[in-house]
Amino acid sequence: MKSGRAAPPNKKSAVPTSLRPSRTRLSALIELLDDDSPTVGREVLRELDRLGRLGRVAVERASRSGAARLRPRARRMRLLLARLAQARRLAKYATRKDIDLERAFWLLSRFDDPTLDVRPFMLALDAMAAEVLRRIEALPATHERVLELAKYLGPELGYRGEQEDYHATDNALLHRAIVEKRGLPLTLCALYVLVARRAGVRAGIVPLPGHVMLRLYGGDKHVIVDPFHEGKVRSERELLKFLAEHGLAFQPTWFRDADDRAMFARHVQNLKTAYTRRGLHQEARMLELVLDALERSGLKLRRV
Description:
Largest sheet: 4 strands, antiparallel
Strand content: 5-15%
Number of helices: 12
Order of helices and strands: HHHHHHHEHEHEEEEHHH
Oligomer: single chain
Number of domains: 2
Radius of gyration: 24 Å
CATH topology of the largest domain: C8orf32 fold
């Protein structure tokens, strides 16, 4: 005898049929991956992103399809969808009251590689800091003591700036700089700062335009070092000379330690520039979401 109770709802049909995209529509979007037009590419990305999981599944299937031309384009779209999701996470983080430089830089690394596990790189920073601490703990608390950090990371480990391919994307990514021992001035300053914080050394980033440097504090004195040039000590006279050579008038804020939010914003700009120079304009536009969020949080930006 049949029960009079209604059958339980089918979870697979929770979304009304009228609101679900047709297979024809999804197939058409996937076929458009073969189109060379950047405008079409942007629209396809927007539509697939709007479709959420259905769009991602369709792209994943296409990335394993038998069509030789379609596979790499579907893989590229899969990466773009993942990067767009990471860009939104970055934008959300940018609105926080307190920004942590390390967290911000790992999020930027995850934007470039959404599958990245940052834990091995954090352990590498831990190991560097442990060695710095071992070296300085028996020394007097002077600026000479904190210079051990610069000596270890610079001349000894060989961290320095990349000058031949300055604008390569890897130079703006902390995890790549840790491995390659090369990077932009701000990437290397961030590395120094994160090691210093772990080792109990006070450090601040000196936000000179075009070439940030690092201030290390020891006792009642401080010293400025240049991580881009293997931690070389710089005098304030040299910094003023740098400004003069680039036609820049002195501004007091350039000689004060920058906060983590300002350096995060500056590095988003660095990464955006790197993507633009590589022709990855979709990624560069995604990072505009982060810059917009930073401006909404009250930070004044000089867009580049």
